Amino acid sequence: MTNNAGNFEDFTHLIFTMRLFTFITVFVALAVSASAQNTGGLNILDDDPILDGSPVAIAI
Q1: Rounded to an integer, what distance in angstroms lies between the CA atom of residue 14 and that of residue 45?
Q2: Distance (Å, rounded) from C-alpha 4 to C-alpha 10?
Q3: Cβ distance 52 to 46 under 8 Å?
Q4: Which of 29, 42, 47, 53 has a CA positioned 20 to 30 A from the CA of residue 15?
Q5: In the 8-state DSSP scheme, what is residue 46?
Q6: What residue ranges do the domains of the chain occupy?
Q7: Cα–Cα distance measured from residue 21 to residue 27, given in angstroms and rounded to the nearest whole number
């Protein structure tokens, strides 16, 4: 019984860690998205044909 309880405890801890990591990842993604929308950084690059559609332009 002790081994089963230990394994269950480790499994629960793993799930908690995964959920925490997922929450942080989603929160950071939303924060970056909101920041990009508020500053209007994407609109500045619209007139530049070189930067249009490039990953660098999207990241900025």
Answers
A1: 43
A2: 10
A3: yes
A4: 29
A5: G
A6: 21-60
A7: 10
